[in-house]
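Input record, target 12 of the design panel.
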């Protein structure tokens, strides 16, 4: 049996170069995962039983894989998965406006209360109006009338009286 000697000594060198080149790539990827995991598992627990947190650690449908902040249940399930332009939070209720065209091309209004669940204005205007009327004063005297979920979450994280912690968050969404 003849053995061909196709190894001219370059295979070992190419393997070493490839290994050296992959080490920085793997380290950068690991750093990104650690930073995103630390940043996007943060949430603010709310009096009304929900929390404000990120939908996932990585969102494959958004630029730079950066997820959006959403109101969520304690188990991490998003109440609304869309980007919210205006959100109001009270001790009992979350209500606001989404500009997403999931239900209507002009966006949609919603209200959520722990004992009632999610109510969309388009589907049940009477219950929606009742929940908003019963909600009371919103957003802890933050001086911006219309604020998005991400901006509100950042303001709440800075407040000393906020219950900020880590919450269950999906790793990936799209």
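The sequence produced for target 12 reads:
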């Amino acid at each position: 049996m003849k053995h061909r000697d196709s190894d001219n000594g370059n295979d070992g060198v190419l393997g070493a170069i490839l290994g050296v080149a992959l080490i920085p790539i793997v380290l950068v990827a690991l750093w990104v995962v650690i930073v995103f995991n630390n940043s996007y598992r943060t949430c603010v627990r709310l009096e009304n039983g929900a929390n404000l947190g990120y939908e996932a650690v990585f969102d494959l449908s958004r630029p730079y894989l950066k997820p959006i902040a959403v109101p969520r249940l304690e188990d991490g399930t998003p109440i609304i998965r869309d980007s919210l332009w205006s959100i109001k939070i009270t001790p009992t209720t979350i209500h606001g406006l989404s500009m997403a065209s999931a239900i209507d091309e002009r966006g949609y209004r919603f209200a959520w209360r722990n004992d009632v669940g999610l109510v969309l204005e388009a589907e049940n205007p009477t219950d929606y109006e009742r929940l908003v009327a019963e909600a009371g004063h919103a957003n802890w005297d933050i001086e911006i009338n219309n604020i998005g979920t991400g901006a509100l979450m950042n303001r709440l994280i800075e407040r000393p009286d906020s219950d900020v912690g880590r919450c269950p968050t999906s790793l990936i969404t799209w």
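The two ends are 55 Å apart (CA to CA).
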